[in-house]
Amino acid sequence: MLTSFRLIILAFLAAPANAEAPRVVADIAPVHGLVTQVMEGVGEPELVLLPGASPHGYALRASQARAMQRASLVVWIGPELTPWLEKPVVSLAKEANKLALLSQEATQTLPFRDGEEEEDHDHDHEGIDPHAWLDPQNAQIWLELIAESLAEIDPQNAETYLANAAKSQTELQALMAELEETLSLVQAKPFVTYHDAYQYFETRFGLSNAGFVTLSDGEGASPARVSALRDRLTALDVGCAFSEPGVDPGVLKGISKNDGPSLSILDPMGRDLPLGTGFYSALLRNMAQSFVDCVKAAD
After folding, report:
1. Do 152 and 243 fall into the same domain?
2. How confident is the model at residue 194 (pLDDT cuts 50, 70, 90)?
3. How far is CA 272 from CA 12, 46, 248, 283, in A?
4. 33, 136, 221, 272: which sits with the fewest CB atoms below 10 Å from its CB?
5. Of 13-22, 123-132, 268-277, where does mean pLDDT reach its minimum?
6. Which of 178, 202, 220 is the last residue of a domain?
7. Residue-level pLDDT at 11
8. What is the pTM assigned to this prediction?
9. How many domains, the chain?
10. Residue 296's pLDDT is what?
């Protein structure tokens, strides 16, 4: 996929860069994993949002603020996911190039889904769903954009960035085929989730989300939504319900009648996975396995 003639010209004509690897900051672990793949053999990015922390509210540590100040490139999803990070990106990383992945033209985005069954909510949930890293086709696109951005600030290593990105894109293509086969067995099985964070994964692999407890993990569940979900669980014979790390599974048990669906965990941030070049593939494999395991338990 990496066929940019402009980058090839940059690699040969730009002035030599310093021997030191560029300082790169990534916002969340999935983005960090992609940047790590592109930078392999040159350096490693720094991570802003530590595993287990919520992307919706966070206070930078002093060391992280210093990393932002020293950065030559900031790669982040964008303010749609971490609005609190927008000011530090501008005020601290003044000299850095910025790559906001969600706003790139090539990124495939989806609008937030409205909780139509909930009649009494007044929460404005319009705009673009920021969980776009859960579509591996977006990851393929981003690998190229990351390589382009790195080649611009570090032309001396442009060839390495381009080769790493191309290799990772090929590996992701194989992973998508693997996950399509794995998930083909569960495509017809409806499920519910704690909050609406998975539609990119669902859309890419043809999965059937029957509903969600909250529109956002920062919200509570209204009585109207809980009642509507109880009815949908019964009507659609939903066999799986997915909570998340740090969420009380009792929230999902509260929408169940009788024994209810089988309860499992989906982790869109990979909080328990080791950081590194294998992070992103492990994240998607774990999610796919969670669907398969839950369906087996329900059967």
Report:
1. no
2. confident
3. 41, 18, 17, 10
4. 272
5. 13-22
6. 178
7. 47
8. 0.88
9. 2
10. 82
Q: What is the mean pLDDT of the chain?
A: 85
Rounded Cα–Cα distance for residues 150 and 157 (Å): 8
- The residue segments making up the domain with residue 277 are 185-298
Dump pLDDT digits (tens) for 263-276. Answer: 888 999 999 999 99
Which phi and psi (to 5°) does residue 98 adopt? Answer: -120, 135
Claim to verify: residue 68 and residue 124 sit in the same structural domain: yes
201 and 263 share a domain?
Answer: yes
Q: Who has greater pLDDT, 183 or 127?
A: 183
DSSP annotation string for 134-196: GSHHHHHHHHHHHHHHHHHH-GGGHHHHHHHHHHHHHHHHHHHHHHHHHHTTTTT-EEEEEES
Whether residue 219 is predicted with pLDDT greater than 60 in this model: the reply is: no
Q: Which two tokens stand for residue 68?
A: 């932002």
Residues 155 and 271 in one domain: no
Residue at a domain's end among 123, 156, 178: 178
Supply the pLDDT for residue 171: 98
pLDDT confidence band for 124 (50 / 70 / 90):
very low
Model confidence pLDDT, tens digit, residues 45-82: 999 998 778 787 788 889 999 999 999 999 999 999 99
Asked whether residue 142 is domain-assigned, the answer is yes
